[in-house]
Amino acid sequence: MKAAIVGIAGVALAPAEARLLREHRPAGIILFGRNIVDPPQLRALTAELRGVLLPDAVILVDQEGGRVVRLRPPHWRAQPPAADIGKLFDRNPHAGLRAAWITGALIASDCAASGFDVVCAPVLDLAYPGAHDVIGDRSFGPNPDAVGRLGRAMAAGLLAGGVQPVGKHVPGHGRARVDSHLALPLVDANDLDADILPFCLNADLPWAMTAHILYTGLDPNHPATLSAGIIGSVIRGRMGFKGVLVTDDLAMQALTGSPAERALAALASGCDVALYCSGEFAPTEALLAVCPPLRAESADRLKAARALAACRHISFDPGALATERDALLGIGLL
Question: Is the pTM of this model over 0.85?
């Protein structure tokens, strides 16, 4: 199995894509809005992918709630942005934590039923005044302890629904003043204790996603995704994170070089899996052709992530949870 997760182009698997996935055997596939129409189509697509991928491969989706969702109404339940849950926590911490857990469970219910086993959430970044709004209301708020606790509650809900959560974007995207989809953010603060704390409080999550950000106080030469120092000393060391470390999308313009070159650099720096989401065939083929197999320790981390979701999975009534959550938030989501 290759140490890569890639995207596909459309709402069905093209024959050339199927041949590529059989030849190179990636660790998983990530789906986006371009791949999703309605529940029957999505279930058919994920089933088709399962027939091509290796049994231990994963299928991922970004489903944070708020504006970053791929499964949308009217076919799937709407979910609130993290900021709304954070505001509830400020008024009533118990209610906020309960709403975060329920939101994770409801997201997991929709995603698991659609064939996903990994959900790229929760966002553990802090909200900073004056920062670029690429994070914005995706953050639970500015308080690191609250963000850590709410992220943990949401992750617990996701696990209760049988999917593996991904904490993002380590070691913290909140200070960025430019969008890393478009350019490389530079964070020159020397004290990042607050940014790192939510990740420390969630160091036992099964997955985490790196930030394409240059933190000059941690590594003045390499963004976190490509920094052996940050990955080894901060993420694996100071934070104590032992789960699967996946890159943010290597198609983002914060990084330079070809997608294949970016993937090799990220893996050499200590990431377990390179994530390339564009769905464009030629660069995906080039990336998979050079991508090495999963390291043994990375395969063990993937196995542990699957086992955690399986053992934490419980039965619940999504309709009853949605009614409770909406009452807590004082809103009527469609």
Answer: yes
